[in-house]
Design a protein that fits this description.
Distance between the termini: 56 Å
Number of helices: 11
Structural class: alpha/beta
Strand content: 15-25%
Shape: globular
Radius of gyration: 20 Å
Helix content: 40-55%
Largest sheet: 9 strands, mixed
Length: 267
Amino acid sequence: MKVSIITINYNNLEGLKQTCQSIQQQTFRDWEWLVIDGGSTEGDRAFIEAHQDLMAYWCSEKDRGVYNAQNKGIAHATGDYMIFMNSGDTFYAPTVLEQVFSQPREADVLYGDWMLQFPDGNEELRQAPRTFSLYFICRDNICHQAMFIKNALMKQSPYDESYRLYADWAKWIELALKGCTFQYVPVTVCRFLVGGMSCVMDDRLWAERNRLDTDAIPPAMMETLHIMDRFTKMHPLALEADDLIKKKKIYKKLIHTAIRIIHLLDR
């Protein structure tokens, strides 16, 4: 099972070197590496040219943002699954790909845990949900670098480039609403460098987060989520309700049922 590793980079030579070393160390060898550089001017292109024998594809040119660069990688990827490992991000261990693909995989999206790496050198393990739910992904995200997505899905529908920060999150919601399968793999997949645009709490981030609620999630589903936000704090049956949403799409019936339950609990 071939894996496409897509790395986007811009003026981050040291980070690119770390990512390159991490990929080369993988014991699983059926991978291809695609490097999409945004026209770096600080020695990155020279490094890429010197190591192009490791790459199935590379380019160094201006792009229109992170997801435009990632879509370029998607267009040239030929693996069964793809993973986005940006410059500076690394696989947690040399055996990660071997652990993930030591057995046949059929799920549309595979995901695992990730290690946050802070600028001061400290690390913090983040664990992904063992059971994927539509409710979870509408309320929280999974680290992009800890996910393997089937090539055919991304080729069919690449990232929405009108998002500058959360196109990946919008994609997971889209796939979940389509009924695509998500499988947790008990592996710490990557070290993810804390920082960058998605970690800056400014107006752009909040605007995109609000856009997820209005554009990526259907209105009926959004109403159900609001009810479940309240219901989850009161009763564990909310998880079962979420499963009904995902499998049967009984939005209207569930809304009415949840409202009746909340009225009873409020008495």
